[in-house]
Write a structure and sequence with these properties.
Oligomer: single chain
Largest sheet: 8 strands, mixed
Number of strands: 8
Structural class: alpha/beta
Number of helices: 6
Length: 230
Amino acid sequence: RPVLPAVSPKVAGLVAGLAGDGLTPYAKQPVNWTDCDDDRCAKVVVPLDYADPARAGVTIALRMQPATATPHLGPLFINPGGPGASGQDLVGYFDSDGLEQYDIVGWDPRGTGDSTPVRCSEDVVTDAFLNLDASPDDEAEREALLAATQDWSRSCGVRNGDLLEHIGTIDTARDLDLLRQLLGNKRLNYFGYSYGTQIGATYADLFGSHTGRLVLDGAVNITRDESVIQ
């Protein structure tokens, strides 16, 4: 694949890393909730690169619908999948009947929504790219699709730099474990749909001792057997 030149763009939501001992300053930062419609919203900072936490930080946006029944069971994190769909938006239409003892918490995974975003081009260019014929019928259409895809990739690299190297399921699962700590739960309770099931399964693989109740609805196939996709 083409190797793009190293760049250091200014990316909205990419901030200075929190200085200190590894992940400790991230796990001890205050979570300042504010009212947003009928819910509560907050933004926190997680490491861009978990191998070098102090280098830079990524902003993560959360939305919480507080519990309305007792005993209080803490946060239930939810994710709609995608990849890239907004967990914050899911809070507004998630069916929480029977789950009133939980705080329903959705977050926009890194690279999406109100969290530190990956933006590859202006909206009009994005629309033109997405409207290209993805199933070319002749060589001219094929060449146009290849050229547009290469231009798109270059634009992503120029605009985002090494942020792109830290957008993935494992990064998201690590973010989720920090969110769990920040909201004060010893174990993660989680409800994921579609690709959100891959986030949940990856979390359980990485943080088995911190895994609580998981619901994985419409699980994606994470094996090499593609006979059943989902």
